[in-house]
Write the structure tokens for this entry.
Amino acid sequence: MSLLALWLFLVGLVLPASAADPTGAVKISASAAGAEVYLDGTMLGAAPLTKYVAVGAHKLRIVADNFEPFVRQIEVQAGKTLELTAAMTAGPGSVEFTGAVGTTVSVNGQTFPVPVRLPSPGAGSLVWQGQAPNFEAGSGTIPLVKGRNYLVAIALESSVGVVAVTSNPAGATVRLDGKDLGVTPVKVRDIAPGVHGVEVTLDGYATTYKKVDTTAGIRGTVDATMNKGGAEVNVSTGNPDATVFFNGVEVGRGTTVKVVGVGRGKTEITVTTDSRSVSGRVEVPSSGSVLARTTEKTVVEAKPLTQQWGFWAAVGGGAVAAGTTAAVVVAANQPAPAPEGDVVVTLP
């Protein structure tokens, strides 16, 4: 083998490079024997070393047990060798967290924006939780060795298109926009951005209706507390072609829609036809029944006839004619206070 061939062979071993991209070289040494050298998170080897790397800016990290990490931004130029000697200082070890812009990490009840480097608490384990807007939270546990340095790159999953549903008790059936998703706890992905209706059912419990909004990467979350029994909700639409929704879930069509076993709480009732859509919030009790009706601009709760003042005023008028005692009995049975102002009663 000629001297030139031998030289090229040795260079290939020491300086592996790809000819596809412009390259330069880095020649790294460290005061701590056997220190590990990382470039942009990828381990190059133990110092001292020389490597070809791509031209441009890089993050250099050199670590060794019982020494502080040596971290620098370097700029590699084409056809040139960047020489650097890391002067390492003694340290107790550390845990460093990196991640995308906006990411935070919580450790031992404290929250820090990343990147952040924390002193190692020593031998044992360290639990961390990572969060970022429009991303699913993540967590992990690090088994610690005294004096060692750790680097955790927090990579969170996007929450775009995610809908997660839990229930108490668990095991409830979940439907989103009429499509079965499974039983709780359940998390699904790739849900289209927008407003969706979620229906949660479980034998022996009232049905829960919820609305979730996955617009602009917002995570849709439902935590349903299932209640025994349930109320009956009747909706008078006045239109045979009307469609009725509870919190975005279609529950029926027609002039009158009756839904049994509805969970208690505020429920948004929407009635749509070909020409208009009106909505209103109605308080559904834990049992009994509720009557709702549409108006020109909204949906309102309609009191039963015996809970309307007009009914009792008419009955009261007849009772007054019969005698004072009857009038007092009628007044005592009023379901609600009298309206303000004069009440006109037509006597026979």
Residues 174 and 200 are 5 Å apart (CA to CA). Residues 4-19, 317-348 have pLDDT under 50 and may be disordered. The radius of gyration is 35 Å.
